[in-house]
Amino acid sequence: MTNEQEPLTPQSLDRSDTMRVSLVPELDRAALNALTERAQEPQTYFGRGLELSDYDREQLAIVATTADKILEPSYSDPDWKAFEDLVKEGSDKGILRSFTTHKGTNIPTWCIDGGRKTTVKKIRTDADQVAIEVPSRIFNLYHWTNTVESIKNYAVSSNETLRGRDTKNLGRNLQQLAQLIGKPDTE
Questions:
Q1: Would the N or C end of the chain have less CB density within 10 A of its end CB?
Q2: Number of domains the chain contains
Q3: Which residues have CB under 8 Å from 117's CB, separation 6+?
Q4: Residue 15 confidence class, pLDDT cut points 50, 70, 90
Q5: Measured over all CA atoms, what is the biggest interatomic distance in the chain, rounded to whole angstroms?
Q6: 152 alpha carbon, distance to own chain's centre
Q7: Residue 186 located in a structural domain
């Protein structure tokens, strides 16, 4: 039997669809869609042409809070705790370093998706780099957690600070969190 990897989807979290958080009425999908489009326009590279209003920042905070509520039950997974402990240990030793992420994710390359059946463990990659191998559900949870944290950072960054960042990530992260949060019950 192969150790298949789960696709990076909201459904890959270990929860049922009935656990989805109902969207709060303050979530303005039209404003968030417009912000997502603005953030991904070619002229907004490294923050040029994108300024977040107070309302935009409020919407980002609501998205992050809603996503946090969806993710919260997954944080009680013992594998998540084991992963956090290894990340802390590796960070304290200064051995978990990566300037790149896995394609399409917000996960540093030292975190390896070992598939559904693996356990959380320290490994060495083929390139002799220290890494942590995790089950797919933990890999996916780490992606969603980092995505939420990124949105929180955008919500509190000044417009001056945004000029030094690649705002296309904001648009990509908003698109991904829209998948996690799902469609409102009224649609």
A1: N
A2: 1
A3: 1, 3, 135
A4: very low
A5: 52
A6: 11
A7: no
Is 9 among the domain residues?
Answer: no
Domain of residue 124 covers 15-181
User: How far is Cα 35 from Cα 160, in angstroms, rounded to an integer?
Assistant: 17
Q: Assess if residue 3 is contained within a domain.
A: no
Instruction: Answer whether 122's CB lies under 8 Å from 86's CB.
Output: yes
* 175-186: average pLDDT: 74
pLDDT digits (tens, 9 = 90+) for 146-169: 999 999 999 998 888 777 676 888
Q: Residue 86, SS3?
A: helix
Report residue 164 as tokens.
């030094």
The more confident residue out of 162 and 20 is 162
Pick the residue with more confidence: 180 or 120?
Answer: 120
Instruction: Compute the half-sphere exposure of residue 5: CA atoms within 13 Å on the CB side of its CA.
Output: 10
Q: Which residues contact 34 (CB under 8 A, 6 or more apart)?
A: none
- Which token pair is 41? 């326009």
pLDDT (tens digit, 9 = 90+) per residue, 43-52? 766 666 688 9
Residues found in the chain: 187
